[in-house]
């Protein structure tokens, strides 16, 4: 083949994962509502094994088409997993442990990130002969998932609120907490179900309902803010960044592995911090710290490039390490907060939209970053992330509610109070306790007025 044909196939191979993730994100609502949360993960695991087998035999079959198909399937697994796993874990877990459960998914992802970097090294499985085994390795945990999950309970919330099966829901609760506590947990679930008797929400209702507009905006904006911390670009091009800091290619690869391990270690702190600190403070801390790290990265890269100061390369390396530390602490929040902003009726629908939006942003940023970097240079390529991060921090500071141990209605009321304060030109009023309580009273009075008119 000529270089043009090879480059085209290479581009399709690389992009097939992102396209598969977008497709998988669209399946979150369909599979999680028709099959259930647990069974959707079993179906996902089966296709994961099929994708891994395509990767394994692509080289021996001399088929780039098989390689592309396998990567597309594994990408779809990523998209589906990102939506269903946090939702399943959070629906299984009591409210006081909900935050920790929601973060475990991203802790596992951060482990997989550095482990994939390890097995992709030429010294491990990344060589010319062994790379099919590296690509096929995800099939092993997927196979284990398919064998273990049938013995795990389905989400009691799904069984009761979506399927209306009280006996199956009670049985799942007994399996989770034991017969002694099952009755109390089931009673709480019945109360929650009584407040939420609506049928499953559609995409049209999600986008057209005025009462859902605010939580949807918050969930998408926090996902947008995280993607524009530059995480996609840093993960995709960290080796190039280290090489720009005058490291040789081999050292740059090992440095990328090292910051992947650092990211995992700091992500492990998220389950501990999220219920102690809260979602809102932790999310704002992550965004501010990532902004600071990106600013340092831009500064040291500029000094290194334009002032030709050799010492600045150490600053660049330090800024990258700092970035991975602070990013890991709050990285799970955007992936789990959508499940807390919506009730059972719209939860799977909203998660589908949120995950699809996240992978769309990741695909756009990863595709556009390198051409943009070649256009403006390495130093100025960080400026869009810095500017958008400043705006995102300012906006989320005023509109992002705390969701820890709170009912969906209470969360949405706080978000409405914050937005109302911004709309009347008093944004600082929203961040004080007195201001929020006053806004809640006003909104409750308005809601009661509408109810009396309707009656």
TrEMBL record:
Superkingdom to which the source organism belongs: Eukaryota
Subcellular location field: Membrane
Keywords from the named record: Membrane, Transmembrane, Transmembrane helix, Transport
Transport among keywords: yes
Pfam families tied to this protein: Sugar_tr (PF00083)
GO CC aspect terms: membrane
Gene Ontology molecular function, alphabetical: hexose transmembrane transporter activity
Membrane topology value: Multi-pass membrane protein
Similarity comment: family membership: Belongs to the major facilitator superfamily. Sugar transporter (TC 2.A.1.1) family.
Name of the protein described by the UniProt record: Major facilitator superfamily (MFS) profile domain-containing protein
Source organism of this protein record: Mesorhabditis spiculigera
